[in-house]
């Protein structure tokens, strides 16, 4: 089968032919119908330290996958060949975080992917493969960050920093929960989609949130200046949720954090149940992830666009869309 392989920091992505995966006990093969492109893929490609996560080398990247089960291993009883499934990035409860597709084992930028049965979530009929794929991370991670980590509820005032693949969904989810939402992105082209998703107003600088005294700020950028601004701009006693991995280190304004009783929490991924809730929200029409397809062979160029900040919403690719693609450097 064809797969886009990554051999280590500084190496180009390569379209290669690799052996078809065989499912061991408890695993299934998913024919990948859609795979989302995440900014974290760029961090992996740059060799960023991901803490406890070790990047397999070489590895097939892609951690937002959805498709159809084509083979099942021994002991798999709850799922069958032909089922439409999304592959959840199960990180909650934290003890359940055992598998890291596209990082610790081969991921979704391939015609087929091995998935452990404990990570499978059925896709409702009204949800497309593209929506199901990008929901595994860009929606579910935002859902957990806003609702669980940030405890956003009706009447909350919320700041969302970084209105990209994740942040745009963060705006919509906070709006659906009944919050008043302010968006921040250095790129004004991201403001229009955020206003459409339910933001009341958008700013270019996170410091501009201070005048609104948000109860919660969710930072999907995660660079030095945004983390510091979020801590200084949230209301006294408020919560800053850090999701973005934009910088390996950020400085915290200590007096602001301590003297104003600010809670600063990190948030990684979501639970399997939360992905199921997100699928229901999409099926109901309340949440519509903004997605745009890129051809599988043009994935590296699409990654460059993502790195340059030229992408609105979420890009996805269909590795099985053209079975005749040539193998080689892409
Ligand atoms: P993206 O590239 O689609 O969006 C990032 C957005 O942030 C862009 O719109 C960009 O203009 C904006 N931005 C950058 N610097 C900014 C600044 N200083 N102030 C305001 N806005 C700024 O990226 P994405 O796929 O949405 O991912 C966002 C971040 O979240 C990445 O660092 C990614 O690695 C991380 N991430 C974390 C998790 C998790 O579970 N914690 C999961 C997925 C992604
Ligand atoms: Zn991701």
What attributes does this structure have?
binds zinc ion; 330 residues; Rossmann fold; 8 helices; Quinone Oxidoreductase, Chain A, domain 1; alpha/beta; six-stranded parallel sheet; globular; binds nicotinamide-adenine-dinucleotide; single chain; 2 domains; 19 strands; seven-stranded mixed sheet
Please identify the oligomeric state. Answer: single chain
CATH H-level name of the largest domain... which superfamily? Answer: Medium-chain alcohol dehydrogenases, catalytic domain
- CATH topology of the largest domain, by name, is Quinone Oxidoreductase, Chain A, domain 1
Overall strand count: 19
The amount of beta strand, in percent, is: 15-25%
Whole-number count of domains: 2
Low-confidence stretches: none
Helix-residue proportion: 25-40%
Bound molecules: nicotinamide-adenine-dinucleotide, zinc ion
Instruction: Give the count of helical stretches.
Output: 8
Write a brief structural summary.
The strands form four sheets. Strands 3, 5, 6, 8, 9, 17 and 18 form a seven-stranded mixed sheet that branches. Strands 12-11-10-13-14-15 form a six-stranded parallel sheet, sandwiched between helices. A four-stranded antiparallel sheet has the order 4-1-2-19, with no helix packed on it. The chain has 330 residues and is of the alpha/beta class.
Report on the structure:
- This protein has 330 residues and is α/β, with parallel strands linked by helices.
- The strands form 4 sheets. Strands 3, 5, 6, 8, 9, 17 and 18 form a 7-stranded mixed β-sheet that branches.
- It folds into 2 domains: 2-137 and 270-317, Medium-chain alcohol dehydrogenases, catalytic domain (Quinone Oxidoreductase, Chain A, domain 1, Alpha-Beta Complex); 151-266, NAD(P)-binding Rossmann-like Domain (Rossmann fold, 3-Layer(aba) Sandwich).
- The longest helix has 21 residues, at 129-149.
- The chain is globular.
- Strand 17, helix 8 (299-307) and strand 18 form a beta-alpha-beta unit.
- The protein has 8 helices and 19 strands.
- Zinc ion is lined by residues 38, 40, 63, 137.
């Amino acid at each position: 089968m064809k797969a886009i392989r990554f051999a280590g920091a500084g190496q180009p992505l390569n379209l290669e032919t690799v052996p078809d995966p065989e499912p061991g006990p408890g695993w299934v093969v998913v024919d990948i119908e859609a795979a989302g492109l995440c900014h974290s893929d760029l961090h992996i490609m740059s060799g960023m330290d991901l803490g406890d996560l070790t990047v397999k080398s070489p590895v097939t990247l892609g951690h937002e996958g959805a498709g159809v089960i084509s083979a099942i291993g021994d002991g798999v009883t709850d799922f069958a060949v032909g089922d439409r499934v999304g592959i959840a990035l199960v990180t909650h409860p934290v003890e359940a975080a055992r598998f890291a597709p596209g990082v610790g084992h081969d991921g979704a930028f391939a015609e087929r992917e091995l998935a452990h049965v404990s990570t499978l979530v059925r896709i409702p009929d009204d949800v497309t493969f593209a929506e199901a794929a990008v929901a595994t991370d860009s929606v579910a991670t935002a859902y957990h960050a806003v609702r669980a980590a940030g405890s956003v509820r009706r009447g909350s005032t919320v700041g969302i920093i970084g209105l990209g693949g994740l942040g745009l969904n963060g705006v919509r989810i906070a709006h659906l929960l009944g919050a008043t939402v302010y968006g921040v992105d250095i790129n004004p082209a991201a403001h229009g989609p955020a206003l459409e998703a339910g933001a009341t107003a958008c700013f270019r600088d996170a410091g501009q949130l201070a005048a609104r005294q948000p109860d919660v700020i969710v930072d999907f950028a995660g660079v030095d200046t945004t983390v510091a601004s979020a801590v200084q701009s949230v209301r006294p006693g408020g919560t800053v949720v850090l999701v973005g991995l934009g910088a390996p280190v950020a400085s915290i304004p200590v007096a602001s954090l301590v003297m104003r009783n600010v809670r600063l929490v990190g948030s990684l991924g979501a639970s399997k149940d939360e992905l199921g809730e997100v699928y229901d929200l999409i099926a109901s029409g309340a949440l519509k992830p903004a997605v745009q397809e890129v051809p599988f062979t043009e994935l590296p160029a699409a990654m460059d666009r993502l790195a340059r900040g030229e992408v609105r919403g979420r890009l996805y690719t269909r590795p099985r869309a053209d079975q005749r693609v040539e193998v080689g450097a892409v």
